[in-house]
Amino acid sequence: MKKLLMLVVTGFICLGAYAQSTAAKPGFFNSYGKDWIQSKNYLLLTLIQQNSQVMSLLKNDAELSKLAEKKRKDLVNSITDCKDATCFTGSVKFTDDEIKQVSSKLTALCKPGSALEQLVKTELIPSYAYSLYKTTSPAELLVKAWEQDAAGINYTIEVYGEGKKPNYPLIDSISFNTKARRYNTLLFDFNQTLAAEIKNSHLFFEPAMRAALLYLQINERQDPANYEPMAQTVNKAAVEHIKTTTWSKYPYSVILIPGAGPDEPEVALSAEGMLRCRLAVQEYRDGRAPFIMPSGGKVHPYKTKFCEAEEMKTYMVNVLHVPEYAIIMEPHARHTTTNMRNGVRLMYKYGIPADKPGLVVTDKSQTNAILVMAARCEKELKFVPYKLGKHLSDTEVEFFAVSEAMQINVYEPLDPQ
Question: What is the DSSP track for 164-218?
């Protein structure tokens, strides 16, 4: 009996150690397939499309099959019935009742040992993309992930189809005048095109998801896909160098530089951006960290062609003569909050030690803002994607990685993950 008890206790200890070891390494799930924009925004739905067993389960369910047919018919009927913009967009969005209906059905289908439960355990949980939902049941997490993806699809259609104000309207707004008469014509053409493309679809979520992605495309908002796959392109040299880096030689893992976008459309790199680069390079040459991480996407001014991270990298390589292998580009962040979050994400994804602090180097005013930024993060992201360390100087503050940074933010579809 004692031996049996010892075996059971040992088993639980091993399971606990396994859970801790897997929880310590978020962000390594990168099986996104071909569509970076879709997978970064709606990962659960992408995983379903990639899993033949799960697809078969959902397609063959009578209730979900009926919903799929309804969504196709709603779209087709809008072509003849709709006279205004909200009718066209409303025909593809999910209703609250539809979201609840799917949630109930997924709960019933996610049985122990089912293909859905295996998808949650082997792919959804390791991705950390839904890490805010602290649940004990795979079915509960599945439902939370579905509801997040559905809400994100509706939000994207509202912003880039209906013209709803995004969180930052000066940089993220719709490209069209929704009040113009010709906009209704565009929406008619949109739904007609979409109906032809999804006529053979049998998954209940595909019409709405394809609509959201197409709205991003016609607004020329392909930002999540920019430079991907980065580990094989703009960050290839750095990723290779990470593999041979002796981390014990450095007090910090990376030097993170938040971007500073210019106000003029034809200016590639602002004066403030140059100065921040020079501050960071001084720290790099002093041996504080083996890598510099310029962070910032194509943000300021509205629909600029210049990427902050890319321009900072070019400046550091060509003007300050920093080797390319020492620079990790983070070209998607649109705010200081996401400079920090995305920096942490790349640390996890590229195997940079998460227990070693990073160093943010920037000007005094932005340093002061970062020191009190937690409340803004909670408001905009619903979590704080880093932990601050010591405030070393007017231009330097330490930070540590936290796994919550991998959480998708579907209310920022231009930089969700």
Answer: ---SSHHHH--SS-TTSHHHHHHHHHHHHHHHHHTTT--STTHHHHHHHHHHHHH
Give Cα 174 to chain centroid, integer Å: 20
The token pair at 92 is: 């593809």
pLDDT digits (tens, 9 = 90+) for 138-194: 999 999 999 999 999 999 999 999 999 999 999 999 999 999 999 999 999 999 999
C-alpha–C-alpha distance, residues 204 and 67, integer Å: 6
Are the beta carbons of 253 and 291 closer than 8 angstroms?
yes
Tokens representing 240 are 């290779």
| Pair of tokens at residue 310 | 């890319």
Three-state SS for 24? coil
- Burial class of 165 by CB neighbour count within 10 A (0 to 12, 13 to 18, 19+): exposed
- How many CB atoms are located within 10 Å of the residue 367 CB? 19
- Judged against a pLDDT cut of 60, whether residue 315 lies above it is answered with yes
Helix (H, G, I), strand (E, B), or coil: what is residue 300?
coil
Q: Work out whether strand 358-361 and strand 396-401 pair parallel, antiparallel, or are unpaired.
A: antiparallel
Which amino acid makes up residue 405?
A
Which of 392, 394, 399, 337 is closest to 363 using CA atoms? 394
pLDDT at residue 27 greater than cutoff 60: no
Strand 396-401 and strand 386-393: pairing?
A: antiparallel
DSSP-derived letter for residue 151 is H
Tokens found for residue 36: 């970076």
Query: What's the one-letter identity of residue 370?
Result: I
Q: Pull the structure tokens for residue 254.
A: 């990376």
Query: Which amino acid belongs to residue 167?
Result: N
329 close to 230: Cβ distance less than 8 angstroms:
yes
Of residues 307, 382, 282, 373, the one with CA closest to residue 336:
373
Among the residue ranges 25-29, 243-247, 258-262, 337-341, the one predicted with the least confidence is: 25-29
Start-to-end CA distance of the chain, whole Å, equals: 50
Residue 243, classified by CB atoms within 10 Å of its CB into exposed (0-12), middle (13-18) or buried (19+), is exposed
Token pair for residue 192? Answer: 């007609």
Q: Are 38 and 31 in contact (CB under 8 A)?
A: no
